[in-house]
Specification:
- The structure is a single chain.
- This protein is mostly helical.
- The protein is 67% helix and 2% strand.
- It has 9 helices and 2 strands; from the N terminus they run H-E-H-E-H-H-H-H-H-H-H.
- The chain has a two-stranded antiparallel sheet.
- Helix 3 packs antiparallel against helix 4.
- About 8% of the residues have low confidence.
């Protein structure tokens, strides 16, 4: 009886050792392998989405580099309007970003930027997203100035010549574009290196960016637009009367 019992126990141990344990190990190995494959696949998809997001932002920012020049016959108008100002006209002279050439183009650029942020913010690192949000704030304030100018033009109480309204709106876009081109240059200079670095060295992990409230570089708050709104309003106000007075006479 004892011999049979020992023989049975020995058989059970052999079954566990040579059959069940290998099956359990094989099962665990299969599960872990599949989990690693799923994780690698998810990481690969995330990396692909991030590269696509950065490439899309890069293509969008290239539009900021396209410039147009004002007609030669209008150069004196803008030079006189900006004479004695603190704006950094710089080497571009009477050239400015082409998307600032009309209210319609600015609205289109703003809509594209908003869609870009909505669809890609999950894949952008904090520093780049912050810069794009600053650019969005800048565009919103630029739009507000122009829409206020347009509303004043259309206000019947002022009796502005409706025939010249489109021309004056174009003057306003060009004047602001020339005066504030340095802001666009700074946004581009801040954003493009971030894009190039991420496209050259894509990473799967979330990139670290430690924000601080003290000494934080806010591109919008430091822009010429944010710091000179009252002055810009005065210069835009002259354009309402540009068919009647020269800048010196208006002063």
């Amino acid at each position: 009886m004892a011999i049979c019992l020992n023989s049975g126990i020995h058989m059970i141990i052999q079954i566990v050792t040579y059959i069940l344990l290998p099956l359990i190990v094989a099962y665990i190995t299969t599960v872990m392998t599949k989990r690693e494959e799923v994780e690698l696949d998810a990481q690969g998809q995330l990396l692909e989405h991030r590269v696509q997001a950065y490439a899309e932002v890069y293509r969008f920012m290239r539009k900021s580099l396209n410039r147009i020049a004002v007609p030669f016959v209008e150069e004196k108008l803008y030079a006189d309007c900006l004479e004695g100002s603190m704006y950094k006209i710089g080497r571009q002279g009477m050239e400015y970003a082409s998307f600032l050439s009309s209210i319609e183009n600015i609205d289109k650029y703003s809509d594209q930027l908003e869609r870009l942020l909505l669809t890609n913010s999950l894949y952008l690192d904090s520093k780049l997203e912050s810069e794009l949000n600053n650019l969005q704030s800048w565009i919103a304030n630029f739009q507000y100035l122009l829409k206020s100018f347009k509303a004043t033009e259309e206000d019947s109480r002022w009796k502005f010549d409706a025939y010249l309204r489109n021309q004056r709106e174009r003057y306003a876009c060009s004047l602001l574009g020339i005066a504030l081109q340095d802001d666009i240059n700074r946004f581009t200079d801040n954003i493009e290196p971030l894009l190039e670095d991420k496209l050259r060295h894509p990473k799967i992990c979330k990139w670290n960016f430690r924000r601080t409230t003290e000494g934080d570089d806010n591109s919008f708050e430091q822009s010429q637009l944010a710091m000179n709104v009252p002055d810009l309003i005065v210069r835009l106000n002259y354009l309402h009367y540009s068919d009647r007075y020269t800048p010196n006479e208006f002063d």
